[in-house]
Structure formats: C-alpha cells, structure tokens
Amino acid sequence: MNGDLLTIFIRLSLAMICGGILGMERGKKNRPAGFRTYMLVCVGATLVMLTNQYLCELYGTGDPARLGAQVISGIGFLGAGTIIVTGRNRVKGLTTAAGLWADACLGLAIGVGFYSAAIIGCTLILLVMSVLHRLDDKMVANARNVDLYMEFQKMSDLGAFMSKIKEFGMKISEIEMTKSNSTEDIGVAVLLTIKPEKKKPHTEIIELLSQIEGVRYLEEI
C-alpha cells in the first residue's frame, strides 16, 4: 500500500464516482446535500482509511480501524445539519442525513479495498433512495391516518369543523394548537390527525375537508 499510487488513484476515483452517483440522485430532488457534498464525503472517508492504513504500515503498529470509527461518529454532525423541523412541525432531511452516513461508510469500504461490498452497497443505497422512494410515497399516501396542518379564522370555525367531519365518517385522533406562519391575521392554527372509518385516498380526504366552511388553509404533513 505504501507508495502504491495506482491503488490510491483507483480507490479515490471509485469513491468519487460512487459518491457522485448517489449525490446526483439527491440533487435531482433538490435536497440540501447533493452531487458535490456526497462526492466529498465519500472521497474524504476513503482518504481517511487510506491514511490509517498507511500509518499502520509505516509504523508497524496501531489500529487500522481507528480513524474510520471517528468518521462514522463524526459524520453525524454533518447529517444533523441537514435535518430541519419546519414551522408546521414537519421533519425534513432524514433521508439525506441517512444517505450521508451510508455514503461515508461506502467510502470507508472503498478505502480499505473492500470493492465488492462497496459496489453492491452503492447499488443498494441508490435503489433505496430512488426506486423505493416511490414505494414509500405510495405507502404514506395510502395510510389510513392523515396528518394535517390547518388554519381557521376563529375558534368557532374549528368547533364547526370538528362537528362536520363526524358527518363524513371521520374522527380526530390527535389535535395540537400551534403557531401560524401565515402573514395574515389567522386566529387558530392546529396540527391534527384525521382517522376515517374506511380507508380512503388522502387526496380525496383533503379535497373533502377543504370544502368545509371556515377552513382557511389545509396541508398534509
């Protein structure tokens, strides 16, 4: 390994390619961490493992996994920076954070020369982030419970809404008062979970609820 420029070039190049492939997928979805971020994380993790391996060979002692362990724990700071909670209590960025962590692990595998695991891992990570993303969206869209953020002009409108949904064969399983982000003078903003008696598409439920008098704004979260 010491002085083997070809091996170093191959591993860093493979890391750049694999990181770039994963980053392109996130970039197309306009996520906080995209093409260059994923590429840098993967190349950086690979470089750490190459350096660790070089030090062990140079001094003939040490733990070849020590620096890699620091990468796995340290990447959490970068991942945490991509997770945000919006004003409507919606958590975003979890997949990006998990992807960065997996991307770093991918770089460690490449850095140590575990090519088969790295290539298979890159393929599976890409599959999860792209193909299975559609399946995840479909499962959420077809879930029985519907989480909503809603705004009403006054409290009486909320009371009328709660009475009205019973006529539609639905009930509220959870409700929480929250602060409105609207620039208008909105009297009441709530986070609530609607549970229909029979399973219905979320789009159908939202369209039905938006027609109720007093509803100023409605969004699924």
Unreliable sequence segments:
none
Order of helices and strands: HHHEEHHHEHEEHE
Number of helices: 8
Computed over alpha carbons, the radius of gyration is 24 Å
Ends apart, CA distance between termini = 51 Å
Helix percent band: 55-70%
Shape by Cα distribution: elongated
- β-strand number: 6
Can you summarize this structure?
By secondary structure, this protein is an alpha+beta fold.
Overall description:
The chain is of the alpha+beta class and 221 residues long. The protein has two domains: 5-139, no CATH class; 143-220, 2-Layer Sandwich (Alpha-Beta Plaits), CATH 3.30.70. Helix content is 59%, strand content 16%. It has eight helices and six strands; from the N terminus they run αααββαααβαββαβ. The strands form two sheets. It has a four-stranded antiparallel β-sheet. Strand 1 and strand 2 form a beta hairpin. Helix 3 (66-80) packs antiparallel against helix 4. The mean pLDDT is 82.
